[in-house]
Amino acid sequence: MASGQLSKAGTWTEAAAGIWAYPSVLVGLVGAGIQASRTPALHEREGAEQGLRYVYKLIDLEGLGLDVNDLPELLTAAQRFGFAGLNITHPCKQAVIPLLDELAPDAAALGAVNTVVLKDGRRVGHNTDWWGFAESFRRELSDVRRDCVVQFGAGGAGTAVAHALLTLGANRIIVIDTDESRAQRLATALCERFGQDRACFSSSPADALAKADGMINTTPLGMAKYPGMVVSIDLLRPDLWVADIVYFPLETELLRQARARGCRTMSGGGMAVFQAVGAFHLFTGLEPNADRMLQHFNGM
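User: That's the sequence. What structure does it adopt?
Assistant: Structure tokens below.
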């Protein structure tokens, strides 16, 4: 009996030693209303596949009774606790910028950050959102017309998506936002970066969509916490493609109504996966398996 117990304990010790020999990575997501996020499981599963002890924590401002004004304290705490980095989501993608030591070229150009790498006492901001959206679009909607695209939302995510759309060859983007001055600023910045008349803003969804090939929602509207749609149902028509970057739920009301009217659609799932692919690489220095991460996401 004693011998068996010793043998069993020895086995456990060896197993524990093997586990703790794996490199460890601690990261997190900062945002509001993020409890339904699939990102932690996505990162942790790929980390395990790569032989890492990978821990991904949710830092939900709502659950903690915090807001964007608490970002300085959260970043300091993350550094002190040895986080390799943080993903940043609504409503912090632009508010975090003044708190960083450096911006990568993509984040500087976009004026929005969704990934912060914490290393050697420094905070470096990156943006993997735009590439995440672009890769999803290439895989799902590469053949659609994009002479004119209407984009709802001019925040951090909207900035990244508009950049991706123009990079992918959209001829013109019409930006609509509840804050018209923000929509105007984004349109101006896009024209400066991509050329005159490549973007404009509008306050009339009906007028904008009447001449559009497709539309995309980059606002939080449609999330479980923010139910609803950015457009009236009667503005959807069969020849309009419709994309949404919201991915919890994956089937938003906008996409459900659009499909019911014969529109071709794209959910926010692909963008969620591919932005995570980019962030994983920044956090770990390892090359993740994008197809494996996509398969895991689809199986959740």
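The first strand starts at residue 24 and ends at 31.
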